[in-house]
Every structure is written in C-alpha cells, then in structure tokens.
Amino acid sequence: MKSFYSKRAKLVFILPGFILFTVFVIYSIVPCFIMSLQNHNGAASLGWVGIENYVTTLKSPAFWAAHKNTYWLLALELLVGIPGSLLLALMLDRAGKAAKAIYRFAALFPIVLSVAVVGKFFVLGIFDTNVGLLNSILNSVGLENLTRSWLSDSKTVMTCIAIAYIWQYLGMNSLLFYTGIRTIPGEFYEAALIDGAGFLKASIHITIPLLQDVLKYVLIGATIGTLGMYSQIAIMTRGGPGRASRTVIYEMFYQAFKTNRFGYGCAIALLFLLECIFWAFIINKFVAREPIEY
Amino acid sequence: MKMKMGMRIGRVIRDGILIIFAILFLLPLYWMFSLSLKDTVQAAGEPWAIPNGLHFENFSAAWQRIDIPNLLKNSFIYTAGALVLCLAVSVMIAYAITRMRMKHANSFRMYFTIGMLVPIAVMMIPVYRLVMTLGIKGTYWSLILPYAAFTMASAILMICAFFRSIPVEMEEAAAIDGCNVYRTFISIMVPMVKPALVTQAMMVYITNWNEYALASVLAMGEDMRSIPLALDLFFGQFNITNWGEVGAAVAITSLPVIVVFMFCNKQIEQAMCGSSGLK
C-alpha cells in the first residue's frame, strides 16, 4: 500500500486546496498587516507610520464604542438567544407530533432567507415607526406611550438589531440542540421519571450536562458569528443613527471603504481577528474540558 | 389523575409556544407575498393587512426595474462555482488526510480548522486587497475563490469524518485489482462519501447564496451583483414610492430558496445538524 500512496499522489491531492486556503485565509493577512503599518488609501501607500495606526485605534473612542455595541450583541445572543434555543429544543423533545412537525418545518426558514430580506423585513415590517408590527401592536393594546422610532433611537437600535439576529438563528440552534438531545439514551429519562423528576428537573440534571459537545459547537458558532456580524448592520441601519449601531466590523468597513483610511481599517481588522481567535480558544478550552461518560 | 392533568396542560402549553415560534419564523413569507400583491396606498399604509386586490403589476414593475434574470445568473455562478471548487478540493484533502498515511495528517486538519474560527466579514479588507492584487476584481472569480476558501474548513472536517467510517479493505481490493490511486479515488471513494458531499453542498450553497459582506465590496459593478446586494441597493434606490414593488422584488428573488426550502426541508435539517458532526 505504501507505493500506492506515492509522494506525487499526496501532492496532487493536497496542493490545490492547500494553496487556495492558504492564499485567501492565511496569506491575505500579510498584505493587510503591511498596510496597517502604512498610511494607506486603498490604492497606494502614502508612507510608513509604524504602529501609529494601532495606537490611534486603541485610543479612539469610536473603536471602544463599537466594542460596546459588539459585546452588547454578543451578550444578548449568549444570554437570551442560546438559552432560548436550548429551551425550545427541550420543549420540542417533549412536544406532540403535530407541533413537532410544524416547528421543525419552520425553524430553518430564517437562515435560508437572504440577510437582505431579513434585514428589510425587520426595518419595514417590524420596527417601522408608522406601520411596523411592533408599534401597531403596542397601539392596539393601549401602550401608545411605549411606541417609538425603534431604529432611529440610539437607545433601542442595538437591541432591535440583536432581536433580528437572534430571531434568524434561534431555530437553527434549537434544532442543533434537539439533535444532541435525541442522542441521549431514553433510559436516563425513565430513571428520572421514576424518581419523580419533572420536565425542569430532568432537563437541568440530565439533558443539559450531556449536551456539552453540542453546546460547545453552538457557542463557538454563535460567538464567531456575532462578533463577525456586519451584514445585518449594513442592511438595517448602516451604523446609524449617527454612530449608534456601529459594531467593530462596521467601524472597520467604514474607516477603510468610506473614508479610505485602509491602514487604519487594517489595524482594526487585525486587532479584532486576534480577539475572535482568543474567544474561540477560550470556549474550546473551558467548555466541556472533560468528556462526560455515559 | 391530578398528575396526568398537569402533564396534559404542560404539553398543551409547550405545543402552543412551539407553534407560536413556528409562526414567527414564517412571518416574512406572509409579509413579502402579501406586500407584493398590494396597491401603492395599501402597501405603504397597511403592510400587514390582507391584500385588498391582486396587484400582479407589481411583479412586472419590479422585473423592469432590476434585471432579475441577470441577478439569478450571477448568484448562481458565484454559488455554484464556489460549491464545486470547495467540494472538489475538500474531498481530495480529506482523502489525503484520512487515508494517505501522511506524517502530519493531524496538523493539516488543525490548519484547515482555522477557517472555522475566522468570521468572513473580518477578512473584508484582506480579501479585497488580495483580489485587487490578483487582478480578478470584476470577474466571477473575485467571489468564487474566497467563498470556496472560507467554506473549506467545515467541508473538510465533515468529509474526513465520513472517510474514517469506510473500511480500508475497499481500497486494498482496488489496489490489488490494479487500480492506481486516482482511479480508486474517483470511482470508489468519492461515490462512497456522496451523502457527505450532498449534505455539505446544501450547507455551502445556503451560506454563499446569502453572503453579503464580501459581495458588497467586491461585486458592486452593475452587471456583477449578487441577489442580496442588489436587493439591498434596490431598497435604498432613489425614491421608491411603491412598496408593493419592493415586496414583489423580494418575493421573486426569494422564490428559488423558498421552493428548495419547501421540498428539501428534511434534507436541510439533516445537513445542518449533520455538518456539526453531532450525529
């Protein structure tokens, strides 16, 4: 068999993909790093500036304001979105046949829809000041004083974007959890039921601890996805009102593509890239460190 | 008896909540189709009301305003091109990693896993810059190549898992019969991982069909736009006075995914959950 897998065959199989991946995902960071050390307008370098772009970035209030927005999104996704989808998955596991079928049919619809459609659906259909569903409902139940221009109010805009984002991935995450739940042997529940445990108790003590692998997968996916969120912002608010809904990535995009400060944008990109890898590493390290034995 | 009653109420509540969420997930469907059939006044004033007529002229108006066949063609080329490229290189790499007894097989796998930890939007500037340097801006390759590169990570991981479940004897038999490694790979191994390929194809297709960040900086040329980008620009266009038209544009361009969603619902769910490697 050794000669069967010749050196040449190995190269033929590995090389095309290796080059594609390395050039676009790994190597492309190198020119970006070089640009981050320059005063660069996207077309040409206007001179070397050393680490000045990094210093400016770290001192810039806009950079930290964008961080606040990004982490507010992340907090809502991790504290509302993920627990919400876990709860839906637990309910799905105990649901009647019809409800189960209907839910499983609908749950993935938000992610097959284009983000442009989802964005506009929320802007025009839900959060619109005059005809949006949210204000219409508030008006019809007599809570007129709660109505507002959700997306042009700097206090509410990030939360509204978070709602749209959570809505889009809630169903998918719940089905991922549900897949994990179904791999847990049924005897565990029977034992718990005999001991008199209800839905809540069985879930907390049996289901959730056994879901660590799925949890890790969903957490990493949700964290990386939320940190890297750009499309929803670009489509729903373009960072507005003012700068109120700029996330770190949007700030990066804005600096590079709207004001032509590519060197500065590259500095933001690289700092933020390190941040994303750091969080993925933390989750990988600390969630489900030891596999639980059945 | 009391216990049973409680359980039944619990189930009704649970089922009710699930169905409410199912309706919430499907809301855009009603929104876009009802909007697309309304006249100007109703579309602007009552987007959620039941249409007061069937104003199909919205569709022809939208059709005239944006070049929908061209958009569909562009999106198809970007997505299908990236899909074919991604799967072809991924299946070869996965085969090499799992079967070819390479020294650093595991390091290779780890290397490609990095792709899963990098959000594609962070790479907007690096990829933009690279595409400029390679001189492929304005061509279909400007999106096909990065899309394929960024979806490789998950494809490789999943196909690797699949290869591992295939017994080595299959290849040994082929080798004894005198097949070389390329022949064995194409006529025996690839057909055996077909389920994994179909699953990944669906995932990669959905991801890239809806990708917006890279498209928004690389495919701005009028003829080169993908659907998400064109829709976004359409919404922001000068003074659109008829929201019914907007609804029609959204409905037409979403129709391909809606149809696929309706008929391949089970497969999409399996793909989604299977690609996580949880099954």
What does this molecule look like?
- The complex is a heterodimer of chains A (294) and B (279).
- By secondary structure, chain A is mainly alpha-helical.
- Chain A has a domain at 63-114 and 146-286: MetI-like fold.
- In chain A, 70% of the residues lie in helices and 2% in strands.
- The model of chain A has no long low-confidence stretch (mean pLDDT 87).
- Chain B has 279 residues and is mainly alpha-helical.
- Chain B contains 14 helices and no strands.
- Chain B is globular and about 75 Å long.
- The model of chain B has no long low-confidence stretch (mean pLDDT 85).
- Classes of the chains: A mainly alpha (294), B mainly alpha (279).
- At the A-B interface, helix 1, helix 2, helix 4, helix 5 and helix 6 of A face helix 1, helix 4, helix 5, helix 6 and helix 7 of B.
Keywords for this entry:
heterodimer; A: 294 residues; mainly alpha; MetI-like fold; B: 279 residues; 2 domains; globular
Write the layout of secondary structure elements.
The complex is a heterodimer of chains A (about 290) and B (about 280).
Chain A: H1 7-27, H2 29-36, E1 38-40, E2 45-48, H3 52-59, H4 61-93, H5 97-106, H6 109-112, H7 115-126, H8 133-140, H9 157-182, H10 187-194, H11 199-207, H12 212-227, H13 231-236, H14 248-258, H15 262-286
Antiparallel strand pairs in A: 1-2
Helix pairs in contact in A: 2-15, 3-15, 4-9, 4-12, 4-14, 9-12, 12-15, 14-15
Chain B: H1 2-36, H2 40-45, H3 57-65, H4 68-99, H5 105-117, H6 124-134, H7 141-164, H8 169-176, H9 181-192, H10 194-209, H11 213-218, H12 227-235, H13 243-263, H14 265-274
Helix pairs in contact in B: 1-13, 3-13, 4-5, 4-7, 4-10, 5-7, 7-10, 8-9, 10-14, 12-13
- List low-confidence stretches of chain A: none
CATH architecture descriptor text of the largest domain in chain B = Orthogonal Bundle
Please indicate the count of domains of chain B: 2
Question: Element order, helices and strands of chain A?
Answer: HHEEHHHHHHHHHHHHH
Largest sheet composition of chain A: 2 strands, antiparallel
Largest interface, chains and sizes: A-B, 98 and 100 residues
Q: What's the CATH H-level superfamily name of the largest domain in chain B?
A: MetI-like
The counted number of beta strands of chain B is 0
CATH C-level of the domain at 63-114 and 146-286 in chain A: Mainly Alpha
**Second rung of CATH, namely the architecture of the domain at 63-114 and 146-286 in chain A:** Orthogonal Bundle
- Strand arrangement, major sheet of chain A: 1-2
Transmembrane segments (chain A): 12-37, 71-90, 102-127, 156-179, 217-236, 262-282
Domain ABC transmembrane type-1 (chain A): 67-283
Protein name (chain A): Multiple sugar transport system permease protein/raffinose/stachyose/melibiose transport system permease protein
Membrane topology (chain A): Multi-pass membrane protein
